[in-house]
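Below is how a single chain appears once it has passed through the pipeline. First comes the sequence as given, then the structure the pipeline wrote out for it. We keep one example in the README because the format questions we get most often are answered faster by looking than by reading.
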Amino acid sequence: MKNGGIMNQRERIKTVFLYGIFICYIFLLIKILFLSRVSLLELFNGQRTLFRSINLIPFYSIREYISGSSAILKAFAFSNVVGNIVIFIPLGIYLPLFKNDKRVITNLLFIFIVSLFVEIIQWLFGIGVLDIDDIILNCLGGWVGILGYKFSLFILRDEKKVRTAITILSAIVGLPVILYLLFMVRLRL
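Resulting structure:
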């Protein structure tokens, strides 16, 4: 009985820790996706000039980036493409941990809805382009995260071991990176 209580307490600590890291990750998403171009105060400033643009043609932005001749544009394009993929990988990893429905398509649909919501909010507030390419890249990143989770489950063959492995990786890699980006990289307020 005593050993079962200790294990149950460890599972609770892991769960609280994972939710804590996930919340920090959500704050990082908000910072990068909504507050990287304008400050929180500027976001609601009625005098601010809004920039609104929509791209509904798949791969149009990516093609424009690739065909650009400027080295600066190509560097921006690379960071934009990679950034849109990388930023949603953790969401793909954490979703199967927190949801009972572990199906790839269900989690990918959730990631699509989150990405679409982000693009619409950016467009409404005039802080980004509503771009189908961003949604595609975000979904690709989420899919990579989901596949990473599934691959871990295939290798470790036990959901508790996967949860423990993700907890350890989150503590060693994820949390330091998230905290660095949240607090050391300047947030415009």
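The two ends are 52 Å apart (CA to CA).

See the next section for the split statistics.
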